[in-house]
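I'd like us to work through together how a protein chain folds, taking it slowly. To get us started, please write out a protein record for me. Go ahead whenever you are ready, and we will take it from there:
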Amino acid sequence: MKLLLVWLFNAVALLLVPYIVPGVHIDTLYSALIAVVILGLVNTVIRPIFILLTLPVTLLTLGLFLFVVNALMFWFAGDILSGFRVDGFVAALFGSIVYSLASWLFSWMMQDQKRPR
């Protein structure tokens, strides 16, 4: 049940991104749900390999290159699905930041609900 709730909250977080970042487009709620699954798979499978390959650059930039890695993964996920489109790298960069912040906020709110008062 918790996994389903996290999936829905991440879809809502992804639906918020086009209202803040002009270069990100999502057609329907169904597209957002599928895009969240694709983003999860891309971040689970491809991102660790990409981080390992770019480790020298990441260390040289004191970790700031991870923003570029996240943007590339966001952009790649936008290329896979037809209902989820990212227009360019700048939109992917800001879209990935907004999506991460919104997803983190929803996760924090869910954890806050569990704590006894």
